[in-house]
Amino acid sequence: MEKIKLSPFLEIEGIGAASGIVHYNNALFLISDNSGYLFEYDLIQNQMNRHLLIADASVNIEKKRKPDFEAITLRENELHVFGSGSTINRNKKVIFNIDTEEITEVDYSEIYQKIKSQFQFSDDDLNIEGALYYSEKLYLFQRGNGLTAKNGVFTITNKDIAFKHLQLPKIEHVETSFTDAILIEDKIYFLAAAEDTISTYEDGEVLGTIMGIMNPETHEVLKYIQLSPTHKLEGLTLFEKQENQLTFLLCEDNDTEDLNATIYKLTLKIAD
After folding, report:
1. pLDDT (tens digit, 9 = 90+) per residue, 121-168?
2. Which residues, 6 or more positions from 178, have their beta carbon under 8 angstroms from its beta carbon?
3. What's this model's pTM, rounded to 2 decimal places?
4. Burial class (CB in 10 A: 0-12, 13-18, 19+), 64
5. CA 71 to mean position of chain CA atoms
6. Contact indicator for 48, 63 with CB cutoff of 8 Å
């Protein structure tokens, strides 16, 4: 597996456990799995703004109450933020209109329950960590770090749901599992981390993160790249596209109470 070196790009104070990132119009939008805010960092002014995603939001919500926002994706001028579905209070989808700053909350309980019943997922096994829209379909990336280790992609069209189970490479003795994904033209670029735990609720020892490149039609994985042996990278966004290379920004969940986020930069040659 090809290995790549990450470079620190930016330190942002006031956000911890970063779980998703979107670059849009000279700003970074970030979510945190233990926070009820959408964080907006202005790259020109070097200033942070916070937007409420839930009532009574705080920066650091206790684990049993947190909405566990793990996936964020851009659709036109809207940011769609998804809870992981791993407990009963993690079933929200929140839409943030970037132009108007209007918030719309959507109850995803019915969809998550349909996923569990249709594909035999227990409450403890469902763990949505990435989302994107492609060809009028919603793709949700399931992190298979529970007992059944079901890594895969849910494809939702209207009310129809399909699931593609995917086996990802191991780091040491632990299979990597999805932590984010984005669409760039005709390819999906995804992150997958190895964490030594069989729980979607409790953290474990971090063994590293890989990136993969996937065909969105067939779900065939075209390439794997090892990014880090120590970081649990959970957010990925395109920062710059040049003729023959892509530059990404990535964020990590450091599994601590520290409210500082390191944003990393990664440059790759464009895949054939």
Report:
1. 988 889 999 999 999 999 999 998 766 678 999 999 987 999 999 999
2. 129, 130, 141, 142, 143, 144, 151, 168, 190, 191, 192
3. 0.93
4. exposed
5. 4
6. no
**150 phi and psi angles, rounded to 5 deg:** -90, 85
Amino acid letter, 178: F
The structure tokens listed for 216 are 């969105």
Which token pair is 72?
């964020």
Alpha helices in 186-261 (DSSP H): none
Whose CA is closest to 108, among 87, 131, 88, 92? 92
| Burial (Cβ within 10 Å: 0-12, 13-18, ≥19) of residue 131 | buried
Beta strands in 14-102 (DSSP E): 18-24, 27-32, 37-42, 47-52, 69-75, 78-83, 92-97
H-run or E-run covering 263:
strand 260-269
Provide the token pair at 251.
């964020």
Q: What six digits make up the tokens of 30?
A: 């970030």
